[in-house]
């Protein structure tokens, strides 16, 4: 039976929690205790539910190196179409959920299909798809969507937490316990080798778009329920919808070295939200918040990218020293190298 | 003798096979080059028809030149960055910040040349920061550029909170002269073309994009060249920022937003390979920039409502990229 | 090679077909942008909609008795998806229909894009006049190049260089603006009068829209003048004000009042979600939405305002004056005509607002607009416009339209 390295687990857990705990303590001091309340914790956690779910959806694409810029537009399109269709069919809250999911699934399938057929980088394709998904609902429902209060319950406690729990289990199982998740990570590590061992990367990438769309559909349902209304946007304004999840994704990638991805996403998105709320509580402007977020990401990713750099330098120095010693020995004994 | 005959036969067959492969590669390459031009030509003809000739009226040609000027200049600089497989998401923020600095200097009474120099310096600084962060700290250039983007955006909006910066538009009308822009465009195109195709600067950037390991092994000082490519981009963005300021006459909190995405779209539309390499062509980036402008101008001229314009732009973008994008064999797409 | 060429031709043909199909719905004469008569909101907002067609059907045709010349009037606004954009569209379309004009709506964009969009739209041809929400010297130069007169609506530059730049053009006819500064000031004043001393404020990112910047200025000036009112926190985002509410609520349990630069259903939903709808916190803000009445009824909202589209109608009248007989109403174009918002402080006023401001008849019908047009009313002057602006109240609208609108 495989022995668990408890020491490693404890260290990793501590490292994973350093950022959120550290932020909590710093802001608790700076805000003179305003952020150190249960209410603030619950509020922050509730506000990070949508970014967490978006992040899970994006992570399925990011695992194979694909950046999906159209996620926000997909959610917006799904929210507007789903909300309106639910009202037209009189299906209430289940209708909102089902129609939002259906729309994002179609969007994900189209994007995945085009990606496989067109063979262009995901970044490029999804910019074009962003323009299409932003404009499409405008052609059908030009004034967006307005949901009555009775149809917005999903965004409230405890329903939003229940949904989060369900999606956590779904992502965890999908990413860690299914062949799809394993194959996804295999392709992300080295696509050439994955292809050589028989993995169909086209099929798996298509599936990543479709599965990712499930998470975006749930996020869209929560988004439209939370706001109660959605308006059409243009000029890539939909990117603001996914920005919180997007930024959390990079932090999650850093934390995934120390904990499971499903947990890393929660910690990452929650930390980014805590950062944002902390700045509001201490009176800093939105501009300063954005700059601090950018700097924090830079610091963390620099640490991540340069992890082991000191060991490498030490090893190189030791290697250079032994090479010098060897060369001196040769010179002293007068032996020539054949 | 039988063996030598067999070898000769094999050689002849090999030569035939090789010639066949060369012919196919050449025609594929030619196709990749001409498709963006066909797309552009098609759009021209299409818009001439649907706008009943207004698209090629003198005034609209002038509009097309002024509307495409900034993006084309930026595309020239961006070619060097994309040639080595890089990217830059901070273009818009640095452009906005540079216009802010230029505007503030002009409003404060500084001579024009100082304001222009400062504007270009800011963009070079921004691009250098992006490159420096990526090369020095070892993080992906995407992260470096996002960090620079949030910083410069923050500065721009912080200053814009206290009010717009407005210059005396009429005093600097000469900066909006179409002839001046054409001259500058021609100069940049000529210099850019020369640097990209006939100097080590351009060739080595393409080499890095093709295979960074091989390039380094061959003695290419890749860090210096990558840095220089970003400086070139910064210079081009700075020039574009100067003329954008004089075209709009003011700086607000949203100045420069979206430029990086337009740039990426231009690169993709022209068939420029996002990973760079030897198939990178300056003309691809230029054609892409012009195509985007023609699309926006033509659709607006045609009289479509905004929702349809954006949808059509998105669909056409996806279609044209599907046709024109360079998909070299063996390259893994992500 | 042949196979590839065939593939390319097929793609191009699909492209042609797709674009042609779009062309059937996108022809300039039949463009959705022209003569569109869509309602601004869904059924849920019916009570606060302006139902566009009814107005032009029930009114007397202002052109009865003589054929008026046909003008093509361009209206520029950021976007028409929001409630205000829909109201602008309805009101301008109504006036154009009544006076034998053609309305063209386009989304202006910002920065370099705004200048380019205007160049393209004017090149498309035959625009006789432009009404714009938001403008600058660069676009005035473009309009001047195309010989198109311009009137501003619901906003006027405040930077001196911009004012002197725009007003130096002969084709600039002046502007009519809402008193956004006063709206911001009044929002805070209402919270103060309701007993709130610890407040928060959520606004739009600075520099994005001048009207919002002016409202913020009004808010800040009131706070400065009343130091016993404390601003606990403020936040400026791009449409994410509803996310500030839970954060403010969690950070500052002592909040007594919240002011917003723009109200929307998302904000009301957030307030309810946070259990702030029990009256412990008062709210005030600009713009009326479908839930505003409910919040007034419950005593949560103490102040609101709206009715900006009336300002655009007055701008239309100023432009029409110039087009039809060359009359320039505003001689000193550096000073805009300022109009107050229609303010609401009770549920009853909200009901009146919904009935008289947002339903079958715009705040000025075609006959009433005639009073502002020199061609029909030679006695109209700039002073007449000023007093007309002063009279813009809910009560005035009720008096004028009371017998025209059925219960």
How is this structure best described in words?
The complex is a heterotrimer of chains A (338), B (334) and C (407). By secondary structure, chain A is an all-alpha fold. Chain A contains 14 helices and 2 strands; from the N terminus they run ααααααβααααβαααα. In chain A, strands 1-2 form a two-stranded antiparallel ribbon. The relative contact order of chain A is 0.15. The mean pLDDT of chain A is 88. By secondary structure, chain B is mainly α. Chain B has helices at residues 2-50, 58-83, 91-107, 112-137, 141-160, 178-198, 200-210, 212-217, 222-248, 259-269, 282-302, 306-324, and strands at residues 165-166, 250-251. Chain C has helices at residues 2-26, 52-58, 83-98, 111-124, 137-145, 160-167, 180-193, 210-225, 241-251, 265-273, 292-297, 309-325, 347-357, 366-370, 382-390, 394-401, and strands spanning 72-77, 102-107, 129-132, 150-153, 172-178, 198-204, 230-237, 257-260, 282-286, 301-306, 337-339, 342-344. In chain C, the strands form 2 sheets. In chain C, strands 2-1-3-4-5-11 form a 6-stranded parallel sheet, sandwiched between helices. In chain C, strands 7-6-8-9-10-12 form a 6-stranded mixed sheet, sandwiched between helices. With 407 residues, chain C is an alpha/beta fold. Helices cover 45% and strands 15% of the residues of chain C. Chain C folds into 2 domains: 68-179 and 308-342 and 360-401, 3-Layer(aba) Sandwich (Rossmann fold); 181-306, 3-Layer(aba) Sandwich (Rossmann fold), CATH 3.40.50. At the B-C interface, helix 1, helix 2, helix 9, helix 11 and helix 12 of B face helix 1, strand 2, helix 4, helix 5 and helix 6 of C.
Which helices and strands appear, and what pairs or packs with what?
The complex is a heterotrimer of chains A (about 350), B (about 325) and C (about 400).
Chain A: H1 6-30, H2 38-47, H3 49-62, H4 71-89, H5 92-118, H6 122-140, E1 145-146, H7 159-177, H8 179-189, H9 191-196, H10 201-227, E2 229-230, H11 239-255, H12 261-281, H13 286-305, H14 309-333
Antiparallel strand pairs in A: 1-2
Helix pairs in contact in A: 1-12, 2-12, 3-7, 3-10, 3-11, 3-12, 4-5, 4-6, 4-10, 4-11, 5-6, 5-10, 7-8, 8-10, 11-12, 11-13, 12-13
Chain B: H1 2-50, H2 58-83, H3 91-107, H4 112-137, H5 141-160, E1 165-166, H6 178-198, H7 200-210, H8 212-217, H9 222-248, E2 250-251, H10 259-269, H11 282-302, H12 306-324
Helix pairs in contact in B: 1-11, 2-6, 2-7, 2-9, 2-10, 2-11, 3-4, 3-5, 3-9, 4-5, 4-9, 6-7, 7-9, 10-11
Chain C: H1 2-26, H2 52-58, E1 72-77, H3 83-98, E2 102-107, H4 111-124, E3 129-132, H5 137-145, E4 150-153, H6 160-167, E5 172-178, H7 180-193, E6 198-204, H8 210-225, E7 230-237, H9 241-251, E8 257-260, H10 265-273, E9 282-286, H11 292-297, E10 301-306, H12 309-325, E11 337-339, E12 342-344, H13 347-357, H14 366-370, H15 382-390, H16 394-401
Parallel strand pairs in C: 1-2, 1-3, 3-4, 4-5, 5-11, 6-7, 6-8, 8-9, 9-10
Antiparallel strand pairs in C: 10-12
